[in-house]
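Q: What structure does this chain adopt?
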Amino acid sequence: MFVGNEPEPSFTATSGLHGSTIVVQASGELDHYHTPILRAELSKVWRAAPSKTVILDLSALTFCDSSGIGELLQARHNGQVRGFRLILTGIQGNLARRLNLAGLTQVFEIFPSVTEALEATTC
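A:
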């Protein structure tokens, strides 16, 4: 849907509480133009999270460029500085290929799904 001359957003980031764990759902294209949206959502989470675990669900990403990967690395750093555990879930497609090629699958804590990450955080 178009409002005036502005196109429909091609990226969204929303967060919700699952028990005491915040899950941030990223959807669409994470690129140079949209990294500020993810950064703003995570900034809210860092300030208000009831626990020190945040799950970033990337299963609905359709694209992620090098700017998006840089933002994920910055989110990891920002979380660590604040004492948070950041878990990535739902990595697939071009993001999975880029992370593998860059050797970053060893840098992030990754689970296939939000459900599996939530189970791991309660153990």
